């Protein structure tokens, strides 16, 4: 599981059956200061998010199990983070 920021949306002109009614977002991982890190990836979800929303993303094998029946997905948005609390770094 990781934290990311919605940076865009994906619209399919044609889709395989398991993705026909799903929402696709472009999500970029965020670092400790909530800045973008790495390249954005396409994530599936069942609830539309707005650009700039902080979201929780499940990746790998567990991602496809977010839906019933499971769908072919590598990354799924499983929720929106309304509040983030980051502990100060304790290392000197």
Q: What is the tally of helical segments?
A: 1
Secondary-structure element pattern, one letter each:
EEEEHE
Strand content: 35-45%
| Name of the level-1 CATH class | Mainly Beta
- Uncertain parts: none
* CATH homologous superfamily (4th level) name: EutN/Ccml
Give the domain tally.
Answer: 1
Q: How many strand elements?
A: 5
Subunit organisation of the chains: single chain
What shape does the CA trace take?
A: globular
Under the CATH scheme, the architecture is Beta Barrel
CATH names the topology as: OB fold (Dihydrolipoamide Acetyltransferase, E2P)
Largest sheet: 5 strands, antiparallel
Strand order of the largest sheet: 3-2-1-4-5
- The N- and C-terminal alpha carbons lie at a distance of 28 Å
Structure description:
The protein has 92 residues and is mainly beta. It has a single domain, classed as OB fold (Dihydrolipoamide Acetyltransferase, E2P) (Beta Barrel). It has 1 helix and 5 strands, in the order E-E-E-E-H-E. The chain has a 5-stranded antiparallel beta sheet with strand order 3-2-1-4-5. Strand 2 (23-30) and strand 3 form a beta hairpin. The longest helix is centred in the last third of the chain and has 4 residues, at 61-64. The chain is globular and about 50 Å long. It starts with a strand and ends in a 12-residue tail after the last strand.
